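S1.2 Input.
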Amino acid sequence: MTTLSPTVVSLTQTVYCLLVVVGRIRVESVEADLGISEVIGPISSPTYSPDGAPTSVTFSVYFSNTGPDTIPASSSGSNFDVNLFFAESEDLLNQVEVTSSFTVVGTSPAGSIRTLQLAIDHHSMDVSVDLVFPQDGCSIYSHLCLVIDEKLYEDPSQSNDYRCLAFDGSLFAAGVANCPSDIKPVHFNVTSPYNYLYTEGEQTDIEFDVDIVNCGGAVIDAADGDNFNVSSVIISSSASIGASDVIKTEFDVDVSSATNFDVGLDYWQSTRISGVKASVELPADKCNQYSYLCVVISKGDNASFADSNLENNVLCTSFGNELVGSTQCKLSSQGWSDLWIILTAVLGSSVLLALVLVTVILGVKYRCKCCSTKTTVEPFKPPTDE
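S1.3 Output.
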């Protein structure tokens, strides 16, 4: 089975998919771009349980051949295979193969064996699945995807070999997962000052946006007040701020001018909280170990939902990019010591000593030239008896 390498996209709005893939045994004389043109889910939106119980569902898959050759009928076996995957986006982000049993439903001869004519032939088949939703996938998988992996011909392109359906409860989609309500931050960037350089010991006032997604299996209704809240920002030595050895400093935030705290969210829908403010300062102690700027969210005081998972309420972005800016720490005494060791190893002690002597001599001459008054030194005269 061919491994697909999809383009990773922004998770500003994450959606999870069902994936079907087709296997390949190349026949050099046939080159044809077979793709999935459409996938239609069930009319009634199924609900999948994460407790291990299977849910039976059927999807209609449509294929089209854009050439350049016609794919001949196979004398034995199928022209392609069909496989399913869970994924974190409609572009197959972090896809995981579905282990549920599934069958291809068709007439005789099977649709996957027939001739696939060029361009105008839109071949279809039904895929029936006893789908088991992963127990740990509630806040992770937003799509169910179908993928082709060609067998009896050469495929010049894999970009159209898959289609994904969202777990968003919409018509002809994948359905919904019966998971408790849950929110998590999926994007975080400082809007002012832009691409800023944080300096050790100096307070910096920042303003930022954070995108929050409803990654649970329940609709979050709008609230009469704050549905969501931004609790704090943290500078940390690790993206795992709960680790025992992490170095971190937490700062309060000002949400008085922020927007969109009261909105509701559908399945896998996101909202952007804008205008959050905070004052951040890099401590002198272990300054160079702070590598991440993190935001912490929570449900609001008037939330219409219960947040089932608090472990995914933190999002960290590393310093050194345009999203949050960069840091600048002063060189400590230990840093100077380390620099001397490195220079000694590279240049040799004799060269460094020569440089130090030259620096001292030039420094003395410089200080003498900068004297504002002249001093006359009388020659030494030995004392006399007079």
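S1.4 Remarks. The CA atoms of residues 146 and 222 lie 34 Å apart.
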